[in-house]
Amino acid sequence: MKIPFNRPYLTGNELNYIEDAIRSSQSGGHISGDGKYTKLVQQFFETEFHARKVLLTTSGTSALELAFHLLNLKPGDEVILPSYTFSSTANAVILAGGKPVFADISEETLNIDPKDIIKKITKKTRAICPVHYGGVSCQMDEIMNIANNHNLRVVEDAAQGVNAKYKGKYLGTVGDFGCYSFHETKNYVCGEGGALTINTEDERVIEYAEILREKGTDRSKFFRGEVDKYTWVNIGSSFLISDILAAFLYAQVENIDEIQEKRLLVWNTYYNALKPFEDKGVIRLPIIPEYSQHNAHMFYVLFRNEEIRDMAMHKLKEAGIFAVFHYIPLHSAPMGQNYGYKKNDLPITENLSGRLLRLPMYPSLQLGEVEYITNQLLNILNLNLRS
Ligand SMILES: Cc1ncc(COP(=O)(O)O)c(C=O)c1O
């Protein structure tokens, strides 16, 4: 048996909508950005998620880059983010002219720890970037309070958090900006894609975001008939997703709940099978706090130490199961070290990242396969426990 770590889920309408996008380009439609399907997906998120404005982008990375550019950071301005995240979160800060400042995570959720955010605030701090790890929400009340007290902006990295909630509110709609990813490894996919949510009422921010996304031009206004020609008005880049990919994505978001239910079934099956072994203290499973309605993006296991984690990963691979570790903490990576961190600066991050293993997780994973995976894992652990 071979069980991959991820398999993108198809709802069945992807090819139909892509064909429609391509065909309609022959009769006045667009396969470039901001065509029919881009608008449909944006409207979907604005209506269903109650986001003030949603702009589809080429990736979660480009959504983050847009968000940090919108903050108008000055050289030396600091942004507090977890070290336990993807490189894009920190890169986006640096590309926008800021300096990433890494905070530790909480044991419970592996999300940024509000207590450590407070410790990292200086006169130069401008923003906080909570990353909702595995689609489990950060402590947003605490984070928003800190931001309000220190006049900081909040950019939510909700790359993994699409359709998950904090106290009933969709992730990505709590802070000033939210960033989603539709990369093939995420819950809703189109190959490569992302979205920026803008939650401010300030129309100038939305206008600036549209300009940044459209190569520094006011083409979005032109398409709406608000100006009679478009021109270069500011700096910008090319962050619009092709309507062919938006067509793929529309087939996914139309089935947003069906996909989530399938993922939750897999997640709960893993949880129930492994829970007795958590109770015995052999492993630790994800903790979902009461304030979080998660989206089953990820199922991970924490082992007692890195040696056992690596042994489990290799033995699972021998059994045809592709389980994978996750982030090497950014502060300890070659690029992160340029920012002056040393070992033990973020002890919880360093400890947990070495013990974590992600199990295969995708909507079409069969429950029989989940049983096979958990049985293999338990065999491996029993062997280890006996030795
Ligand atoms: C936390 C986090 N932020 C940002 C990204 C970047 O998203 P994308 O791959 O769509 O650029 C990812 C993707 O892996 C991620 O996990």
TrEMBL record:
It comes from the Archaea. InterPro entries: DegT/StrS_aminotransferase, PyrdxlP-dep_Trfase, PyrdxlP-dep_Trfase_major, PyrdxlP-dep_Trfase_small, WecE-like. One of its GO terms (molecular function) is dTDP-4-amino-4,6-dideoxygalactose transaminase activity. It comes from Methanoplanus limicola DSM 2279. Signal peptide: none annotated. The keyword Phosphoprotein does not apply. This is TDP-4-keto-6-deoxy-D-glucose transaminase. GO terms for biological process: polysaccharide biosynthetic process. SUPFAM superfamilies: PLP-dependent transferases. Keywords: Pyridoxal phosphate. Belongs to the DegT/DnrJ/EryC1 family.
